[in-house]
Amino acid sequence: MEAEAYRGYCLQSVAAAYDVVLITGEEPSWEVPYIRDCVVVPDPTDQAALSSAGRALADRYDLAGVFTWTEWYLVPVARLARQLGLPTTAPEVMQACRNKATARALFGRHGLPSAASASVRTREEAHTAAERIGYPVVLKPSAHAASIGVIRVDTPEQLASAYDFAARAAAQGTESTSVLVEEYLDGPEVSVECVTHRGETTVVAVTRKTVSAPPFFEELAHSVDAANPLLDVVAPAARAAIHALGITDGVSHIEMRLVDGQPRLIEVNGRLAGDMIGHLVRLATGIDLARAAADVACDRALDLTPTRSSAAAIRLIYPQRSGTLTTLRTDVPRPPWLHRVHFQHQPGDHLLLPEAGGDMFTARIGYVITTGPTGAVAHARAEQAARALTIEVSKPTDADQAA
């Protein structure tokens, strides 16, 4: 049911304006009230199966548009849209979004501020690239998501194990299985939420991020403030990145770091942001990014006028160590600014952090969402709400390591 916890707001919003027919990897459950029909495709990354499902729905209905908010489906869905004659950013552009090495090359070709980067396939190549770029460096899969397999390396002695860590995640890739060795960008991380229609981009919001201490880059919190002055600073770089990649239609989530106060691009995700960021944008500004994505997919006129000027934040909850979750509760009153508390694990579940062979998303216990008059207040309230949770995790056992 985690799809409902993180993407339920998207489907609910789209279904309020459109009749939705769904192509899904499993029989629908919570989605049923929001859809008119569906076709189950066990693996939506299988282009032939996805295309067959799309044609079946096109035979039943007059389809106006197709889109996805799932990272792994971006390229197949763009190809499906093209096959059905529906609006879409070109599949090869979505391929460039999925492959960070290709995106880096395009940023360089257009003279955009990014990070020095090299694509490697062996430890030896990684060592050579790191020596050339200069430590600290960041190793990451060329085509993955959610910061999985991303690790900072401060010394040559750390490189071999870090390469193996990134390569294990990279091996899961479909667009690319290579590893990138990149310059470490030292500065606060933000993302920029944008909507592009017929080649014209509107910068909607900027999201401030809190990430964990090295070596991993776990995303701990996000906050969106409708009045954030950073919007004017980062908007030109976001628009330029979208143009460089060739995105013509869709919602984009552009990640960057501010180095000496200036934006340096990390990557462009050609989809709605995860971690409930789109929901934070709506709470803070009134702008509905999920509805905008559907409108763009159907080539309809957009309304991106802000109707609120507030702020919202999410604090993602992780265990302090790997092990078995034994206690999970919140005993504090629910103030009006505590918008939502969600738990995706229950006592008895085994939690594995990256250093124990797991990853941050599967180890995540849940989240809290708060609102406030400013981003700083909303963020502080989210931290307060997180501290009020009682979470206990037992020491890891052999069962945890094998789970």
Topology of this structure?
Layout (H helix, E strand, L loop, with lengths): L1 H14 L5 E4 L12 E4 L6 H14 L13 H10 L7 H8 L1 H10 L7 E4 L2 H11 L3 E5 L9 E3 L5 H12 L8 E5 L5 E9 L2 E12 L7 E7 L4 H16 L4 E10 L2 E8 L7 H9 L3 H9 L13 E7 L5 E8 L7 E6 L6 E2 L8 H4 L2 E7 L2 H13 L1 E5 L4 H5 L1
Helix pairs in contact: 1-10, 2-3, 3-4
What structural keywords apply?
403 residues, Dna Ligase, domain 1, D-amino Acid Aminotransferase, Chain A, domain 1, eight-stranded antiparallel β-sheet, four-stranded antiparallel β-sheet, 13 helices, 17 strands
By secondary-structure content and strand pairing, the structural class works out as: alpha+beta
Indicate the CATH topology of one domain.
D-amino Acid Aminotransferase, Chain A, domain 1
The SSE order reads: HEEHHHHEHEEHEEEEHEEHHEEEEHEHEH
CATH architecture of one domain: 2-Layer Sandwich
**Largest sheet, strands/sense/barrel:** 8 strands, antiparallel
| Structure summary, number of beta strands | 17
Which percent range fits the helix content?
25-40%
CATH superfamily of one domain: ATP-grasp fold, B domain
What are the low-pLDDT stretches, counting only 5+ consecutive residues below 50?
Answer: none
What distance lies between the first and last C-alpha atoms, to the nearest angstrom? Answer: 20 Å
Shape label: globular
Compute the CA-based radius of gyration.
21 Å
Strand content: 25-35%
CATH class identity of one domain? Alpha Beta
Give the spatial strand order of the biggest sheet: 11-10-7-8-9-12-16-14
Mean pLDDT: 93
Count of DSSP H/I helices: 13
